[in-house]
TrEMBL record:
InterPro entries attached to this UniProt entry: DsrEFH-like (IPR027396), TAT_signal (IPR006311)
Signal sequence, renumbered to the chain: 1-36
Keyword DNA-binding: no
Keywords per UniProt: Signal
Entry annotated with the keyword Protein biosynthesis: no
Protein's UniProt name: Uncharacterized protein
Highest taxon, organism lineage: Bacteria
């Protein structure tokens, strides 16, 4: 009985391999080159009176991750158009390090503030790391709890992205 079970199993495996080999030897199907898909906007479409409200979370002090979040904001602004999107970057935890005057990305953030990208820092994080609102880059806002700011904005219709 055991020998019969092994033979059946072997046939199934062999049969499966033969089927895969046959598919691999079949004439290749030419693939169309990759194309950009058209993006269909939700209703109402983004506009001056109906801007997309998008908030990005910043919780890392890793230079690559921080720069990725900053580029995400710029790319969203380019895509939707300056007047068609409101952007906010909410930082807490290690992400707060990017918002201080002594940050390696301080100059980038200062420039983004000029283009109406809002930066919001977490006072709870400042309290636990012995930092103060005066340490923030000029123009960066702060709230007591960064996570609560995310929750409240979501409830107010903001789209939340955690890159």
């Amino acid at each position: 009985m055991l020998d019969m079970t092994k033979k059946i199993a072997r046939r199934r495996v062999t049969g499966g391999l033969v089927a895969v080999a046959a598919l691999m030897l079949a004439a290749p199907v030419p693939l169309a080159p990759a194309q950009a898909a058209e993006l269909e906007f939700a209703d109402p479409p983004p506009g001056f009176d109906t801007p997309r409200k998008i908030m990005l979370q910043l919780t890392s002090d890793d230079e690559k991750t921080v720069n990725n979040v900053l580029w995400n904001a710029i790319n969203l602004q380019k895509f939707y158009g300056f007047d068609n999107v409101q952007l906010a970057i909410v930082a807490y935890g290690d992400g707060m390090k990017a918002l201080y005057k002594d940050s390696p990305v301080a100059e980038r953030i200062e420039n983004q503030l000029k283009f109406n990208i809002e930066y919001i820092g977490c006072k709870n994080t400042m309290d636990t790391t012995d930092r103060a609102p005066d340490d923030l880059i000029e123009g960066v806002e702060w709230v007591q709890a960064g996570i609560a700011a995310i929750v409240e904005r979501q409830l107010d219709g903001w789209v939340y992205i955690a890159p």
